[in-house]
Amino acid sequence: MKLTGIRSIEDLAKDGGLTNKRLFIRVDYNVPLDKKTGEITDDARIRESIPTIKLAVEAGAKVILASHLGRPKPGKHEGLSLEPCGARLSELTGYEVHLPDDCVGDAPKKVIQDLRAGQVCLLENLRFHEEEEKDDEAFARELSELCDVYVDDAFGAAHRAHASVHALPRMVRDRGAGLLLLRELRSLARLMDRPEKPYVAILGGAKVSDKIDVVESLLNVVDSLCIGGAMANTFLAALGKKVGLSKIEDDKLPLARTIMDKARNRGVNVLLPVDVLVANGLDSNVGSEVSVDAIPDGTMALDIGSKTIELFGKEIARAKTIFWNGPMGLFESAPFSRGTFEIARQMSRSEGFTVIGGGDSAAAVRKAGDDVAKGISHISTGGGASLELIEGRKLPGVEALRSNVAEEAS
Ligand code: ADP
Ligand code: MG
Fold first, then answer.
1. Whose CA is nearest to atom 4 of ligand 1?
2. Helix 338-349 to helix 359-368 angle, to the nearest 10 degrees?
């Protein structure tokens, strides 16, 4: 992943380049919301957007923020307004945030017309228009008419070819990347371009099938691969172990065997759990620790056990580079959170370069405590995007920022 041909917001701000300009910043305010109250449960993405916004405000731009939130269906926009995100941004920065009630049409035009240098507005949810996800040119054109300069800072949306990150930037000559997007790209590039060895990857989470491509590409670069979480159950079953009622993917057993064979051929050390916490069901409030050779019938593995924490810990301690994706267990439930939190703690103590990708994994590390999160070199704000980068794919949102991409007359 090279950043050639991509200007940064700092480049764009040189020589008063942003002063009095209408600057469109695509942020990622697709934050998790409480199902009942609709409150923001993790505002990390809003906090992470602030340095770019501050820079824009101080450069005297008229700042136009835009984002998507959730997956609104046609005509069903309830609970998915960006208004709470605007309110949170305002709380965190002290800026007054103007909120037009749409992202295109007369409402934003009017608000933007009245915006003075250094003032901020946040457009309403881009996905309230189906055209956003369709990368629709006419919709992008409407957005392009709102601005003079375009900056993308929405790493979490960079793997999507959607209008606000793909069609739109190509319509604006002065375009570039925000500080968060650049930090994400540089951190993840460090994992791919000659990472310092030993390089250890820790994978877990719900499914093997979500992560096949990432496992394949990690096998080319890592020295060891620690596998935990529900994903590990499929590997244990593939080795012929009885896993009781544990969550596994029956159709992925051959794949798990292929992965282990490939790893062996490439000299990659694969570590699986040696013990697990089992319980009778997902709502159990206690687990018992057993060897993976003695998982009782009628129980399911919901976390890694103490010996496994120690085993993975040894790999973490000797690593110079660590990438982690996917929780080690059902961490949302206190009795099964220890494995995930312990791995987070050990990673945070590492002197090496440590990166965490994946929405649930990032939330888990923050839940493990502020001091734990602080000890991690980089916690990505993009789950899917970080995995796609590690798979070696190009991200449409990043490619659209390059200056050699064909420009359309605007
Ligand atoms: P990420 O969002 O970090 O990529 P995933 O979405 O792949 O992670 O997986 C996260 C989910 O996997 C969490 O909700 C967690 O509870 C669940 N999980 C992890 N291990 C287990 C397990 N052993 N049994 C059931 N669920 C698990
Ligand atoms: Mg997830």
1. 358
2. 80
Could you list the beta-strand ranges (E) of 99-197: 120-122, 149-152, 174-177
Cα(329) to centroid of ligand 1, in Å? Answer: 6
Phi-psi region of 367 (alpha: psi -120 to 50; beta: other; left: phi over 0): alpha
Q: Say if residues 263 and 225 touch (Cβ distance below 8 Å).
A: yes
Check pocket membership of 359 for ligand 1, CB cut-off 6 A.
yes
CA 360/CA 211 separation, integer angstroms: 14
CA angle 234, 237, 239 (to 5 degrees): 115
- Is 86's C-beta closer than 6 angstroms to any atom of ligand 1? no
Helix/strand number for the chain, H first, E second: 15, 15
Residues flanking ion ligand 2, Cβ below 5 Å: 359-360
**What would the pLDDT profile of 366-382 be if each residue is shown by its tens digit?**
999 999 999 999 999 99
Atom of ligand 1 lying closest to residue 205 CA: 9
- The answer to whether the CB of 380 is under 6 A from ligand 1 is no
Mean pLDDT of 286-307: 97
Q: pLDDT tens across 211-256, in order?
A: 888 999 999 999 999 999 999 999 999 999 999 999 999 999 999 9
